[in-house]
Amino acid sequence: MSERELSNDECWQTLQRVYEFLDHELDDASGDEIREHLAACEPCLEKFDVELAVKTLVSRCCGGDQAPAHLKAKVMMQISVARHELG
For the Putative zinc-finger domain, which residue ranges apply (predicted)? Predict the structure, then answer.
């Protein structure tokens, strides 16, 4: 983390909006808030990087931004398992 201490609530709120951020669905002010948080919070930046990698992989492998439902379910299950093991 940076010089300022970030709250779990702030991290939770940031990570809840990661997909909107990745899909450029946020207004400039909200995007700036997320960029600022990610720059100051290494754990959130690492989670963001994972989400970006998954989105990039799905886009490359599936020819678009939307994964087939079965693939999305499988990936989400693996992410859930990994989070449980790490958390």
Answer: 14-44
Q: Give 60 or 10, the one with higher predicted confidence.
A: 10
Helix H, strand E, coil C: the string for the chain is: CCCCCCCHHHHHHHHHCHHHHHCCCCCHHHHHHHHHHHHHCHHHHHHHHHHHHHHHHHHHHHCCCCCCHHHHHHHHHHHHHHHHHHC
- Residue tagged 């951020």 (tokens): 21
Each residue of 6-53: pLDDT tens digit? 568 889 889 889 889 998 999 999 999 999 999 999 999 999 998 898
- Indicate the length of the chain as a whole number: 87
Sign of CA dihedral 36, 37, 43, 47: negative
- Are the beta carbons of 32 and 14 closer than 8 angstroms? no
